[in-house]
Amino acid sequence: MQKSDFERENRGSVYRTAIYLRLSRDDGDKAESDSIANQRKLLEDYLFGRSEFRLVGEYVDDGYSGSSFERPAWKRLYEDLESGTVNCIIVKDLSRFGRNYIEVGRYLQMIFPVLGVRLVAINDNFDTLNEWQGGDSLTVPMKNLINDIYCKDISKKVTTQLDAMRRRGEFVSNFAPYGYKKDPENRSKLIVDENVAGIVKQIFIWKLEGYSDNIIADMLNEQGVPSPYEYHLSQGNRVSGNFKKFEKARWARGIVYNILHNECYTGTMVQGKRRKVSYRSKEIIILPKEEWTRVPGTHEPIVDRELFELVQEIMKKDTRIAGGKTKVELLSGFLFCAECHRQLVIQSTYCNGRKYRYYTCKSCRDEGRKTKRVSESKAESAILEAIRNMAEVAVRMEKIIGEADHVPAKSSEVTRIDAGLIKLQDESERYSRLKSGLYEDFLSGILSREEYNDYNRLFSEKIDMAKAELRRVTDERRRIVDSYKDMKWIKTFKKYRGITSLERPILAELVEEVLVHENKQLDIVFRYQNSIDAALEAYGYGEGDYGDEIRKAI
Q: pTM here?
C-alpha cells in the first residue's frame, strides 16, 4: 500500500482523533479483555502523553458483529470522517474495526487513503501512517483473513448451539413475546406475564366475536392499553423505536395480526422462522413453516389450543366488514353455494317500506346460472335449530355409549380389525402345531438334526411375529373402541342444549360450512361431522330403527 500525500504532509500534525470500541457475543468476544470498559482503558492509556492526538469523540457499537459494517456508531463515525470532523481512528486491534476480510481491506487500501484517515490498531502494532510497522506487507492482510475465518467459524458454532437450544425447547430470542417474560431463574424459559396476559386472551376472544384486526387495535388504543413497544420500555427493555410514527407507539393492525398467528400462546415454542443469508450479511430470509422448530408443552399457555385453532379457522374465511360497522356479519364466511362452492355475500333490499337482508351467490348471478340465495333470518333459524337438535343427539349418544358394555360391533373399522385378529390367531396356532410335530418327525427319522433345528427356528420366528402383530392389532382395536367412548363432539354440543340465540363464537366452534341449494334448502356441515357419522355407525344406528330418529334430528 502506497502512503497517501495526506500521510506524508501530516507527519507531526495534531490529529482529530476518535476512539472506536466494539463488542459482540456473536463474534465470540467473551474474554474480559474484550469488554468495552477494558477497551476504553487501553485506548485512553495509549493516548495519554501523545500530543499528536486530540480526542474529539468516542464511538461504541456494543452488541454488533464485526462481520458487517452496518453498525450505528460506525455509520456516525464514517459521516464524521467524510465531513473532516475526524481524521484519525484508534482501536484496540483490527478485529475491533471489523472481521470481514474484504471490507476491512477496502477501507484500508481504498477509502482511508482517499479520505486522508489514519488508523491505529494498538495490539496489532499497526499504523497506516507508518504502513506496517514491525512486519512485511502481508501481515495485515493475513490478520484480516484470520479475523474473517474466525468470525465465520464462530458464526457456525453459535448457529449450531442455538439450533440445539431450539430443539430442546429453550427460548433463545432477546425479548419474550408480549404476554410472557423470561424466567429470572432460567433465562431460556418463558413464564406468563400476568400484567398483560389477559390482553392477549381478550384479543383472541374479540377476533372470534367478529372484530377486525384494525378495530381491535383501535379499541386497545381507546382503552389506553400500552402497546407492546411501550410496555417493553416500561419494563426497562432496550428496544428499537425506528418504526414509531407518534410520540408514543400505538397498537396497529400488524401487531394484532402477529399475536393472533403466534402459536407460542398455546404453550408451544415455535422458533427458527428466519435466518441470515450468511455471517457477512444482515439480510434475513423467511423459512417455510415445515422448517420451523416446534416444541409443544415448553411453557404455560395463555390461550388454550381449541380457542387458538378456532381463531385460525375463522381467519381463513372472508370476513370483510361493511362500512360503518365494527364487527363482521354473524354468518359471514359460513354460507357457500352448493353448486360452485363460492362464498355467499349479504345484500339488502326494501319492499313496502321494510328492509330485507339475504345472502346470495354473486358468481351464479354473474355467470347466468340460477341464483342461490337465502334470507338472513331463515338461515339463522335453520342453523340454530340444527344446533339444538345436535345437542339432543349428543345427550342420547352419551347415554347409549355409557350403557354399552360391549364392543361397537357394527363399526366397519372394528369389523376389519376383528377379521384380521382371527386370521392372525389361526396363523399362530397353525405354526404352533407344526412346531410341536417336529420332534416326533426327528425321532422317526423323517427329519435330520440339521433340518429339525432349521424348521424349529423358522416356526419359532413365525410364531413370535404373529404374536407381535396380534398385540399391535389388539392395541389398535382398543384405541378405536376407546375413541368411540370418549368423543369430544358430545361434550361440545351438550354445552348448547336449549340454546336460544346464535353468536359468532358458537358458529366458529360448531359449524364448518352451510351449503345453500337452488331450492333454498340448507345442508349444515358440522365441524365434527365425521366423528358423528362414525359414532352412529359404530353403535349400529344406520338406516332404520333408532338411527332414523337420530339422523332426522341431525
A: 0.56
